[in-house]
Amino acid sequence: MTISFWRYSHLALAISSFLFLIIASLTGIVLALEPVSDNYTSYHVNGASSLTIAELLDTVGNQYEEVLSIRQDENDFIAISAITDHGDETFYINPFTGEKIGEIIERHAIFKFMTNLHRSLFMGSIGRFFVGFASLLLLLIAISGIFLIIRRQGSVVGFFTTIVNYNFSQYYHIVFGRWTLLPIVIITITGVYLSLLRFSIIPQVDISHTVDYVNIRENPVKKRKNFEVFNKYTVGDLKAIEYPFSSDVEDYYHIKLTQKEILVNQYTGDILSEQNYPFITLVSRVSILLHTGKGSVWWAVILGISCCAIPFFIYSGFRMSLERRKTRIKNAYSSKTCDFIIAVGSENGSTLRFANAFYKALISEGKKAYITELNEFKEFDQMKHLIVMTATYGLGESPTNATKFRKILDTYNTSNSYTYSVIGFGSLSYPDFCKYAFDVDSWLKKLPYTTQLVPVHTVNNQSFESFSDWGNAWGAAMGIPIVLNREEVVSVHTKTEEFTVLHKTKAADNIDDTFLINITREGRKKVVSGDLLAIYPKEGERERLYSIGYLKETKEIQLSVKKHDRGLCSTYLDNLSERAVIKGYLIKNKSFHFPKRASAVIMICTGTGIGPFLGMIDNNIKKCPSYLYWGARNKTSLELYDNDIKQWLQTEKIKKFIPAYSRESSEKVYVQHLIERDATFIAETLKNNGVIMICGSLIMQKEVIVVLQQICNEYLKKPLNHFQNKNRILMDCY
Question: Gene3D superfamilies from the entry (predicted)?
């Protein structure tokens, strides 16, 4: 229930304050430009902060007949008020020479207008109250957002680890949130503080000086440049100096430093009074600087970007809420009359889309089905078949609407027997892939009145193909033809590109019916080995995804494809001739790119899983130590890649090629056996900031993961997910 509290609080706060937040963010964007504008015409003089105050006063005194005051603003510009040949003037100077270098920057009318709108909405004290209250709400929104990201990523350590891109709104809501929520927290805390200060809820504390005028001395007279206090502090410490009004001994230098104020005898240099600023005064000054960005162009830019993110958060947050509403459960039959119960565990509504598609497939076959959340599971009178569809949240935890399911099962009392099936949804980018689904399966398996219909099935990255495979297996076990509507689950991609075939091999020429196809395109969109290419084999058909290798030197996209007997897309690609045009689109897969910083890279793959590695190795011009483990049936399977591998070994783009052949001899050797054999090398690579990349079948991946887990536990004394969270183990399997 904790996650529900934070999510609903997050949404409620956003709804109640979004109008004020939009105004505050838009005005904040404009005001963030002011420090940048001020620094565009820079009157900052490098090295001036190291000058002593004595040197500054002496320089200025030699340059001007009478000086009234000196001040240093947030941008470190030194300005003086002095009497010159033109009368009383205020201007910026070079502190080394005392020469005038510019006129005082007048604040632009647009910034004055935006400041008033930003502070009070032109409504005076009432407006200031609303703005301050909106800042408080935004602070709570940001805190709840940070909590939700931590929960989603499983831990504080995983805050900046991989995020799976399920859809635009959800993905960028989290991505921008990770980088801007902390600055937004700072903006809101300082905004609330300044509002409390404005309404005197936090009291202002003024410095009060007490001067013993009776005992002020006029002797011994010292030259100003010899005053000890002026030589003790530098221009870097200085905020302002007010000169004595007259030559009377009672008039003094009033010095404002960053931490204190000092009154100095104009004749002897004695300190007449010295008062440190109260803590509240220092906090107030820092709050203003942090809230406005004045004095730091880089911080002002960060504030501006953070303000830009707020309207996007509002848009994407509301859009996600509307998308969740679309997945609301709608049942055609009462639960009391249904044989089939579909129980769903979903965090953001995406799993419900799959459940609804399956529900409609059952209804279309004339079956009575009822769909519900796992938290609402109960004793259903007519239930004969239970289908559990659930996502996993955080570190293998239940989604929001499934938190009560374990307790419900513990108290569940029924005499009815039923079959059950569990399908888990998740991403292999996360270490606890579909863990909650396996937990649910283990709980149901222990019950005396249940029978597992089909083994637990997992769906990676919302793959419709994988979901459809499960639907076919479930339907075959039940004797019910399940026809799933893809459009119920996945939005159709309307923007496609044309790719031209440059050259290819034939599947018939390889013992494994495998072939290579090289294609090119006209677009300028950046392509990286490990990205995905979605291909439409026929008009109206669903796309197939292929992991690509990109050859930078020739700017070609290369696919490694295995032709299947009834494979629509693989057959389509194999039958293509050179210069043929195919339609598709590229999908970024940043979680499976060759690492930019790694002591070494170990690549593990089987069959056509070598595809993305072909491009990664070919582009390894910096010769990062790389090792390729590859599994196939026999040595003749290697013919397709043999020439490239020999060339890479010769040019040291890979250090070693380690093949595993399962049918070369009576002893079947798989890649996991070689990984187990080289356990010490694998452990040393991980220990020394190396990266392991795995690509190929899910079956291979599961076996390799078991071995890697053993290596991590035995040699490194750390769990596998420790390295996954640090992006040191990357996977793209299917």
Answer: 3.40.50.360, Nucleotide-binding domain of ferredoxin-NADP reductase (FNR) module, Translation factors
